[in-house]
Specification:
The chain has helices at about 5, 50-80, 85-130, 135-145, 155-165, 170-185, 185-205, 210-230, 240-255, 265-270, 270-275, 280-305, 315-325. The protein is an all-alpha fold. Among the domains are: about 110-185, no CATH class; about 185-325, no CATH class. The longest helix is centred in the N-terminal third of the chain and has 47 residues, at about 85-130. It is extended. It starts with a helix and ends with a helix.
Amino acid sequence: MTNSARRKPASFRVEDVEVFEPPDVTPAALPAEATPPAQVRALPKLERGLRWGSIFLGALGGLVSLIASLWLYDWVIALIARDDWIGWAAVGLLGLVLLALVMIILREAAGLLRLARLGKIRHEADSAARQNDKALAVDVTRRLKRFYDGRDDLAWGLQQLAEHEHDIMNAEELLRLDERTLIAPLDPIARSIVAASAKRVSVVTAVSPNAVIDMMFVGAQNMRMLRKLATLYGARPGTLSLLKLARMVVTHIVLTGGIALGDDIIQQVVGHGLTARLSAKLGEGVFNGALTTRIGIAAIDVCRPLPYVEQQRPRFHELVAEVAGIR
């Protein structure tokens, strides 16, 4: 080894090291042109002028409405001026059209109102059950009796409820009585409606040769099922209220996280061996039936005016097994 390799490093002291100090960079030491402003200025507010697009659409809509009104007025006056059977027949038909339109509007408004009342009763019943509020439970009972007043299939339940409601001092027990006398008789019917719709969907989609026909049939069958369930629980929806109910059901499914239906669920219900032997079309029918079942259970949750206090909520696996014909 050489002497340079064995040479030890020279000793040094910390005081001998020259420490580098950065220059003063405070705002006072910077030149004037490099000093940042004290605060950032806000963006200038853009002033909007006249909304010519809105003015155009509003004026165009008003013009079209005025022309249509004038045309209809002149047409009616011309028909009346004929003073013969053709003119009076046309006027009569026009009156019938207007009457039907008014009745349709009233029916849709009544359907929306009854659906809103059903939702309000359910909300108050949930609050009464959670808080054990006797006054709120009494109000729910009063609303239920008025909501179902006049139904022949619930006459016995209304009579029993009127006889025993004043003997109960607890909110939960009162809701239990409401459910037992008014809602429990409707639950088996709702379950049968869901099962029948799911079976029909499964059979038709399994034998249908066209995917478009499958989609149309599944959609129509599900809307029909929603209408039956809503009518059973007292909503009697029209077209607009049925669409609102469908949106509420979809929202409920998304919030509860129950839309995921896959092969694993079907295999758990039907069985691994049978699922492996099913054809693709038959498996599609089973899947569509399971999806209809899930929508039906969510519709029952939305349309039912009371929470499940004493009765048991329909189970998805049991209904799918019933639809598949497996016990």
